[in-house]
């Protein structure tokens, strides 16, 4: 297993669109395992393959306190949603930024797991927010896209400044 570099906003690669996974083989499983390791290392609750520059529809999530409830969604699809809720979101690709974003309150998601088995899951709370946030990544979308252009511009400037300093 290895820790993968995470792309940071405004890297244009974050706008790539992920393709469906055709077969969950050992190569895919290795990507999933690397993604979990990368997410845990960065103290994140979710990570989408696009963020580590892998253009496949793969998401890993763990919203548990003990970090022992791995959820892997391959080719995820939201099949129903209900209600609306606003909560503060952050992103490993936009470090240090937290903004309130509106999402569906409850969702039902259909996906394939790491073993290649199709499953359906009902989610609410942080898990529902996280799934919606990560599916956005697979479509080249970031949570800052929901903010006003002015706010997004400010965040972009701040990120570029930090990235310049880190070089
Ligand atoms: Ni994110």
What does this structure look like?
By secondary structure, the protein is an alpha+beta fold. 29% of the residues lie in helices and 26% in strands. The strands form two sheets. Strands 1-2-3-6-7 form a five-stranded antiparallel beta sheet. A two-stranded antiparallel ribbon has the order 4-5. The longest helix has 18 residues, at 149-166. The mean pLDDT is 97. It binds nickel (II) ion (NI).
Strand and helix layout:
Blueprint: H1 26-41, E1 46-48, E2 58-61, E3 71-82, E4 85-89, E5 99-103, E6 106-112, E7 118-124, H2 125-138, H3 149-166
Antiparallel strand pairs: 1-2, 2-3, 3-6, 4-5, 6-7
The structure holds nickel (II) ion.
Keywords summarizing the entry:
two-stranded antiparallel sheet, single chain, binds nickel (II) ion, 3 helices, globular, 167 residues, 7 strands, 26% strand, five-stranded antiparallel beta sheet, alpha+beta
Q: Kindly state the mean pLDDT as a whole number?
A: 97
**Estimated radius of gyration:** 15 Å
String of helices and strands = HEEEEEEEHH
| DSSP strand count | 7
The best one-word shape is globular
Query: What compounds are bound to the protein?
Result: nickel (II) ion
| Straight-line N-to-C gap | 26 Å
Strand order of the largest sheet: 1-2-3-6-7
Strand count, sense and closure of the main sheet?
Answer: 5 strands, antiparallel
Q: What proportion of the residues form beta strands (DSSP E)? A: 25-35%
Which consecutive residue ranges, at least 5 long each, have pLDDT under 50?
A: none
Structural class: alpha+beta
How many helices? 3
Share of helix among residues? 25-40%
């Amino acid at each position: 297993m290895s820790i993968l570099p995470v792309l940071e906003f405004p890297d244009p690669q974050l706008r790539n669109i992920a393709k469906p996974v055709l077969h969950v083989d050992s190569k895919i499983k290795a990507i999933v395992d690397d993604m979990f390791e990368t997410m845990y290392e960065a103290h994140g609750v979710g990570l989408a393959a696009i963020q580590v520059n892998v253009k496949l529809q793969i998401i890993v999530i763990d919203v548990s306190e003990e970090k022992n409830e791995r959820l892997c969604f391959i080719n995820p699809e939201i099949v129903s949603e209900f209600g609306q809720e606003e909560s503060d979101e952050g992103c490993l690709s936009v470090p240090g930024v937290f903004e309130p974003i509106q999402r569906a309150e409850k969702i039902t998601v259909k996906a394939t797991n790491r073993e290649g088995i199709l499953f359906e899951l009902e989610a609410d709370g942080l898990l529902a927010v996280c799934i919606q946030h990560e599916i956005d990544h697979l479509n080249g979308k970031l949570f800052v896209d929901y903010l006003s252009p002015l706010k997004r511009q400010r965040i972009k400037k701040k990120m570029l400044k930090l990235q310049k300093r880190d070089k």
